[in-house]
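Q: What structure does this chain adopt?
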Amino acid sequence: MRISARADYAVRAALQLAASREDVPLKAEAIADAQDIPHKFLESILNDMRRGGLVLSQRGGNGGYRLARPAESISIADVIRTVDGPLVSVRGVRPPELSYTGPAESLLPLWIALRSNVREILEGVSLADVASARLPAAVSALTDAPGAWANP
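A:
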């Protein structure tokens, strides 16, 4: 699985909003500066997140962006899906829409299992979990596995 720059920036921007006071909107420039995200790219991402119902925008001198719901109720998967679409696809196609024959027939259940595991992790971690550095125990345990941090 590959996390796009767009998804990475969206999650980082959402985390910046999650860490801020809920009653004070953050300006896009402040988010961009805090997370080292190109401002124009961030504006596009924030617009997608607004259309997706994850953030609210407010115009004016005291304007900016804030989360549309509590950080505890927004998963990392919600953010990625909003800006990038499905969490797992093969050649841009969702796994259930694929079919294989012959020796490749077992690929479909493999892709489905991969999607299931990705969903389990990304849907099970909220913005609040990451912003507070309190990942769920099951996720933390995966990072302790031998070779988790190694690049084969």
